[in-house]
Amino acid sequence: MPEFSWRPANDATSEDLEAVFDAGGARKCRCQALKAPGWIWRDTTQEERDASLAEQAGCGTSGPTSGLIGYVDGEAAGWVAVEPRESYPRIWARQKSWMRRDPDLEGVWSVTCFVVRKGFRRQGLMYELAAATVEYGGQVGARVLEGYPTEPVPGKTVIWDEASVGLLQVFLAAGYAVEASPTLRRRVVRHRLGAFS
């Protein structure tokens, strides 16, 4: 059985980060959809998104960082974005009010994006990455982890762009619970960590 491990991106190398994103389906977005102002493709260049991801990930630094890198047998294979919710300005600027639940609640960390390299897909890596967010959340003192996954319509194929936010069953397997179902396919899920009232 392949061995899975993970580490915060600031504890990884920039080469590991690039290996995931260059062959992971997020080559253009670079995990900036909830960070870049305006409409991402119109208002930012590819070079700006590349630089933003590198800065946010903080590879080889003492942190902070914007996500976790997952490894299969020591090879960088996937990514999950997890940061304090306030790190995502477009959560607050977008028209989708369902992404702004309990705006005054402190200690909420958002899990917004999954990337899995070609060659490592359909092996359960997204499940491993979702479980890693729970372990990491406990380490960094998050009170609540929050995700915005999609729940595929039965019998319908899920394309990468839809799956990039995570699939509902993946979050549920990691101990998250559904908080809201704002649209036919989108869910808001949360995992409460530590003391929470």
Structural write-up:
There is one protein chain. This protein has seven helices and seven strands. 28% of the residues lie in helices and 22% in strands. It starts with a strand and ends in a 5-residue tail after the last strand. The radius of gyration is 16 Å and the shape is globular. The model has no long low-confidence stretch (mean pLDDT 91). With 197 residues, the protein is α+β, with helices and mostly antiparallel strands. It has helices spanning 14-22, 40-43, 46-57, 89-93, 125-140, 160-163, 168-173, and strands spanning 4-8, 67-72, 75-84, 108-116, 144-147, 177-180, 188-192. It has a single domain (4-192), classed as 3-Layer(aba) Sandwich (Aminopeptidase). The protein has a seven-stranded mixed β-sheet, with helices on both faces.
Structure summary, number of beta strands: 7
Helix coverage percent: 25-40%
> What is the count of distinct domains?
1
**Main beta sheet, described?**
7 strands, mixed
How would the global form be characterised?
globular
Number of helices: 7
- Helix and strand run: EHHHEEHEHEHHEE
Q: What class do helices, strands and sheet pairing give? A: alpha+beta
Strand order of the largest sheet: 1-2-3-4-5-7-6
Measured distance between first and last alpha carbons = 40 Å
Please summarize what this structure is:
The chain is 28% helix and 22% strand. By secondary structure, it is α+β, with helices and mostly antiparallel strands.
Which helices and strands, and how do they pair?
Blueprint lengths: L3 E5 L5 H9 L17 H4 L2 H12 L9 E6 L2 E10 L4 H5 L14 E9 L8 H16 L3 E4 L12 H4 L4 H6 L3 E4 L7 E5 L5
Parallel strand pairs: 4-5
Antiparallel strand pairs: 1-2, 2-3, 3-4, 5-7, 6-7
